[in-house]
C-alpha cells in the first residue's frame, strides 16, 4: 500500500511545524484506561497513555496549550447511534468511566477539558475556537482509539486548517491489528504527519 500511495505522490510534501503547537488528547478516560473499565484492558492503550503522559510533562513545562476530550452523555437519547454496547451502559455523565485518567490530568490545571458528543473532538465543540484564540496553528493528536475517535479528530483538525500531527506512540486501540498501521499510513500520506512523541517534545523544549 505504501508504494501505491507514494507512486501517486501521496505523502510527498511535508506538513512540518508551524509557529505554535497545541495538543489534543482524545478520550483517555477510565472506561478505556483503568482496570475494570468497560472498554479497558488493551496493552496498546496503556502504552499510549504512558507515552502521552511523558509528552504532556514536556509540553506543559514549555507552555504548550493542551486540550483533553472525553465522552459522556446525559441520556441514552442524547447519543448518536453507537454500535458499541459499553458506550450505552458506561458513558453517562457522573459514571466512573467518564473520568479522565489521572496520569493525563496530573499537572494539567490549565488544560482545557471538555466532553464531546461524536467521534471527533472538534465536532460540535469549541475546540477549534480555543486553539485559534491562542494562536495555535499546529495540532498534535494523542488518544484512543486510533481507528475511531483519533482518526476522526485528525481529519477534522486537517479540515479546520491546522497542521496536523499524529503522535504514533501516543495513540492506541483495542489491539494492534494491521488496519491500525494502515490508518497511520493513510494519515501520514494525506491529512498529516505521523511522528513519535519524542520528536514532538523536542520541538517544544
Automatic annotation (TrEMBL):
Entry keyword annotation includes Kinase: no
Record Pfam families: Isochorismatase (PF00857)
Residues in Isochorismatase-like domain copies: 23-175
InterPro entries linked to this entry: Isochorismatase-like_dom (IPR000868), Isochorismatase-like_hydrls (IPR050272), Isochorismatase-like_sf (IPR036380)
SUPFAM superfamilies associated with the record: Isochorismatase-like hydrolases
UniProt keyword terms in alphabetical order: Hydrolase
Top-level taxon of the source organism: Eukaryota
GO terms for MF: hydrolase activity
Family, per entry: Belongs to the isochorismatase family.
Name of the protein in question: Isochorismatase-like domain-containing protein
Organism from which the protein derives: Emiliania huxleyi (strain CCMP1516)
